[in-house]
Amino acid sequence: MQARQRREVLINKMSELAGSEKNCASCSGLCCTSLKNSMQTSQQETLDIYEHLKSSGQINKELIATLTHCIGEYRLDKFFGDGRRALRKTYTCPFYSQGPTGCSIPKHVKPYGCLAFNPTRVKVTDGIGCESDQELLIQREESSRADLKVNEKLWWDKLPMPVALLEVIKLYGDQV
Question: Which of 23, 87, 97, 111 has a C-alpha 20 to 30 A away from that of 103?
């Protein structure tokens, strides 16, 4: 299954909401910043982002420096929890750019959680009035059961996206 197919139900819902003017077009993007973002990605989501970045020539020293800075600034590589699960940390997404462009990652490879987090009202500007559609995420998961563990060399189920992406870049030995 291709990246776009794995996200199809999420992208379709976003398009449906956009048709009723429930979209992110006029929002400042607080959901992508350290005020609200704690996005974690599975192996498959991370590999999809990696393949996109690699095929578009975006894996370079600048990207690695940006990921490394993000991980360090928000201490994303330090795991705290109760021994059963790690506490999620907030961070500003390294692919977020303030303004109308928002995310530099295209929809067909965005993390599932990003695609499922949408406005519930018209013309959101401040990030309030948005929520994650958990039912839609469950529906997406049921349509693609093999998503979580796809590579035995990858040791995690889910990690903060910058940590996971840097792990994949290191694993595949991209020399930049």
Answer: 87
d(CA 155, CA 29) in angstroms, rounded, equals 31
Work out the pLDDT band at 173, boundaries 50, 70, 90.
confident
Q: Is residue 33 part of a domain?
A: yes
Which residues, in sequence order, are bridge partners of residue 21?
Answer: none
Helix (H, G, I), strand (E, B) or coil at 110: coil
Task: Say if 133 falls within a structural domain.
Answer: yes
Residue 176 lies in a domain: no
Record the tokens describing residue 90, joined without a space: 């907030």
- The domain total for the chain is 1
Single pTM value for the model? 0.89
Range of 84's domain? 3-171
Two tokens at 103?
């995310």
